Amino acid sequence: MSDLAIIHGPPLEEEPGLGALTLPGYLREVTDRYADREALVFYEAGSRISWTYSRLWERAMTVARALLSLQCGKDTRVGVLMTNRPEWLAAVFGAALAGCVAVPLSTFSTEPELEYLLRASAVSLLLLERRVARKDFAAMLSALEPGILAAGGLRSHRFPHLRHFALTGEAPGGSGIESWEAFCARAAHVPAGLALETAAEVRPADIGAILFSSGSTAQPKGIVNSQRGIAIHLWRWRRMFALGDDVRCWTPNGFFWSGNFGCALGSTLSAGGTLLLQSIFEPAAALELMHRERVTFPYAWPHQWKQLLEARNWDSVDLSSVVYLDPVQPLAAHPSIRLRGWTDPCCSYGSTETFTISTGYPADAPRQAAEGSNGMALPGNTVKVVDPHTGRILKRGEQGEIAVKGPTLMLGYLGLPPEQAFDPEGFYRSGDAGWIDERGRLHFDGRLSTIIKTGGANVSPIEVDQTLETMPGVRIARCVGVPDEALGERVVACIVRAEGSSVSAEEVRAHARAHLASYKVPREVLFLEGSDLELTGSSKTKPAELRALAVRRLSASGETGK
Predict the structure, then answer these.
(1) Which of the following CATH numbers is that of domain 452-556: 3.40.630.30, 3.40.710.10, 3.40.930.10, 3.30.300.30?
(2) pLDDT tens digits along 326-344
(3) Which residues make beta-bridge pairs with 418?
(4) Spacing of C-alpha 47 from chain mean position
(5) Residue 313, Cα to own-chain centre: how many angstroms?
(6) Which residues lie across from 297 on neighbouring strands?
(7) CA-CA to 411 of 20 to 30 Å: which in 198, 307, 341, 505?
């Protein structure tokens, strides 16, 4: 055995449970297997909407034919701006069936963020949900470019690639935006056989989807994932979760993030299970949904588990149907739950760049096999730990930067040359710290970069800093992540006021809320002196020392913003 910090997973062809390696092929296979089973349930306006697998296929084909009628085709980018609802699945799979590239967009997006995402993604067509919580995305689009929704055909100067809109919900009066029903009616102009032939031309190496995830730059990076990479994980997660044929999955997190797309959606459909969709997380409603629909597999983030415990109906719901829940999760404390020994495969490592995990152990592996590690390399993958400065492979036991290569690795970053995404050998350099032990297991030690991971989402402090520094009264903003029991990390803004300014913590947060998604808004605001930041000539700070200072200040005072 080599003493170098490089490990190889088994050959991909030896992995059990894999099927077709394209999204059209995947949907066709699960439909053929589970045609009459219930694929999804969704409650809207008091009505229970239920689709079988055959119905999901039909609705995805309808979207594909509608797209083809609009001259969308190979590699056309189709934006999908929706919460977890039936139309999201129809839109994403429908785009794939038409040979297009789905671009799931975050419904947390504020107006400036939406503008960036539309420009960066260069989508030609946008399928959107008009109203999400207090947001009206049609109004946002009109604010970004007055007249963009006017009747008579879309021609946008700000978004020159954008040619068509369709939305769920009521369309604005007098606009040219198309209702979901009118959009789907376009399918009548395209024979079903043509859509089937188009779907058959999709190849595993084609682009499957473009997802956005905050990285080390101020703006989210567009991550270009292949059909094969996505499909592998859609199949793989059933094995990794060790799921039977009794899966009824509830999750509150958006499918526009790879974790939910792969882990929750993929594992459920691969098992012939049912997705219990909830557009917006509301704890009491979530518990009622789990009770009413006999959920067996709840999948959430730490802060959401905590909110469920605090919900007003915690004591009145029956959750005895739950099977796939780790005993360490707070929900396991519910008096009606009797667990049967299943454990979450939390000993894993991955990112959106690999469309979820690269290393790990399945849920039915002995917990002691991990021994605090993040698992072995998954089939087809190679993982190495290198010197972050030279790229030299280190010895086992030495800490360095984690680098990954394999069949689920992204094709690249949108708009960036390959050398900015991969090293000369084709590895993705993660910016994460870790080491490989003598048994060939990866250990993840945190981030070499300053990315903040809060509630399962990545936050770029550079983006938050730049937003806060546009605020009058703020001279310098430096955000850090500090440990948080529920969120993993919480965003803390360290602010140096401009001379004579008395800007308050709440004003800082209000400014952030107006420009950033809610999970990026600082939970705490600390006001410091310029000397506290130890600025260098290049205006850089020492993140580790600033983080330690923030932790000390927060520990010393029960209040923030002082």
Answers:
(1) 3.30.300.30
(2) 888 899 999 999 987 787 7
(3) none
(4) 28
(5) 29
(6) 249
(7) 198
Cβ-contact 469, 460 below 8 angstroms: no
pLDDT classification of 562: cutoffs 50, 70, 90 = very low
| Local structure of residue 395 (DSSP, 8 states) | B
471 contacts 522 by C-beta, under 8 angstroms: no
Residue whose entry in the numeric block shows the structure tokens 């049609």: 138
The answer, yes or no, to whether residue 534 has pLDDT greater than 60, is: no
Q: Which of 299, 408, 432, 411 is nearest to 355 (CA)?
A: 408
Q: Which residue in the block uniquely carries the two structure tokens 């993958």?
A: 381
**Alpha-carbon gap, residue 308 to 286, rounded angstroms:** 8
CATH code 3.90.1330.10 for 243-333: no
Checking if the pLDDT of 368 tops 90, the result is no
Confidence of residue 40 (pLDDT cuts 50, 70, 90): very high
- Taking a C-beta distance cutoff of 8 angstroms, is the pair 204, 210 a contact? no
For residue range 547-561, what is the model confidence (pLDDT) as tens digits? 889 999 998 875 443
Lateral strand order in the sheet of 38-44: 47-52, 38-44, 274-277, 248-251, 297-298
